[in-house]
């Protein structure tokens, strides 16, 4: 079977996807840890979304993975759009989950500049825990919150600032019509990071895009309603 590759978002890591690894039994599932994040927190983060994309493509080649189904969440959704632009023939199917077309994140719970200021003044640990809470409808009371916060806390202040700068300077809007890969866009209807306008643009601009809106979820739909999310994902991957 074609390998399934997961690319996490800002303050994320490979451990976010444990429930999806189980749900996709029978697939070769590869969950990356981007440089500066998760189990690769000791590595220096690239200064751009394009740099993350180039790293991911090299890493997959080093593992002997040349063709794959590609899933990107949040900042990871920006990264996978760059991966498709650079290596369209390597990607069989694409999932853009909780993500958008421009990195300044209009409609986000706070501006990128505010996040950078608060990271500098409040420190990386407080910032990690505060931002992770926004991913859930029930914020810090969500069952999966502590696990996500622990992953987020692995990021250094430098990595946080680099990641925020990389997102802020990125746009993929002009390349959407060039994505010929069969695509699924997934969005939680209470997402505090990406409003509907961003999701709609992905869905309407990519020629072969399908849309799944999951109700009653924020930014971490795969953790808030894993059964529904996994069913949608497995259906798409096996079609």
Q: If you had to describe this structure to a student in words, what would you say it looks like?
A:
- With 239 residues, this protein is α/β, with parallel strands linked by helices.
- The chain has helices spanning 18-23, 49-62, 75-86, 112-122, 124-133, 145-152, 157-168, 196-205, 221-224, 226-238; strands at residues 4-7, 29-31, 68-73, 91-97, 182-188, 209-214.
- A 6-stranded parallel beta sheet has the order 2-1-3-4-5-6, with helices on both faces.
- The longest helix has 14 residues, at 49-62.
- It is globular, with a radius of gyration of 16 Å.
Brief overview, please?
Residues 3-226 form the AB hydrolase-1 domain. This protein has 239 residues and is α/β, with parallel strands linked by helices. It has helices at 18-23, 49-62, 75-86, 112-122, 124-133, 145-152, 157-168, 196-205, 221-224, 226-238, and strands at residues 4-7, 29-31, 68-73, 91-97, 182-188, 209-214.
Structural topology:
Blueprint: E1 4-7, H1 18-23, E2 29-31, H2 49-62, E3 68-73, H3 75-86, E4 91-97, H4 112-122, H5 124-133, H6 145-152, H7 157-168, E5 182-188, H8 196-205, E6 209-214, H9 221-224, H10 226-238
Parallel strand pairs: 1-2, 1-3, 3-4, 4-5, 5-6
Helix pairs in contact: 2-3, 4-5, 4-7, 5-6
């Amino acid at each position: 079977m074609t390998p399934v590759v997961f690319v996490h978002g800002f303050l994320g890591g490979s451990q976010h996807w444990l429930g999806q690894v189980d749900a996709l039994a029978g697939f070769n599932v590869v969950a990356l840890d981007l440089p500066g994040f998760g189990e690769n927190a000791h590595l220096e983060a690239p200064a751009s979304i394009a740099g993350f994309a180039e790293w991911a493509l090299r890493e997959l080649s080093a593992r002997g993975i040349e063709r794959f189904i590609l899933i990107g969440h949040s900042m990871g959704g920006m990264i996978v759009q760059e991966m498709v632009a650079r290596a369209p023939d390597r990607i069989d199917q694409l999932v853009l989950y909780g993500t958008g077309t421009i990195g300044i994140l209009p409609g986000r719970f706070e501006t990128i500049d505010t996040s950078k200021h608060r990271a500098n003044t409040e420190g990386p640990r407080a910032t990690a825990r505060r931002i992770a809470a926004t991913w859930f409808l029930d914020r810090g009371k969500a069952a999966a919150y502590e696990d996500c916060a622990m992953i987020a806390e692995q990021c250094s202040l430098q990595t946080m600032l680099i990641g925020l700068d990389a997102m802020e300077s990125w746009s993929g809007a002009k390349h959407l019509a060039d994505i010929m890969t069969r695509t699924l866009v997934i969005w939680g209807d209470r997402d505090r990071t990406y409003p509907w306008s961003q999701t709609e643009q992905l869905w309407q601009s990519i020629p072969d895009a399908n849309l799944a809106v999951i109700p009653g979820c924020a930014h971490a739909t795969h953790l808030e309603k894993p059964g529904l999310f996994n069913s949608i994902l497995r259906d798409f991957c096996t079609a």
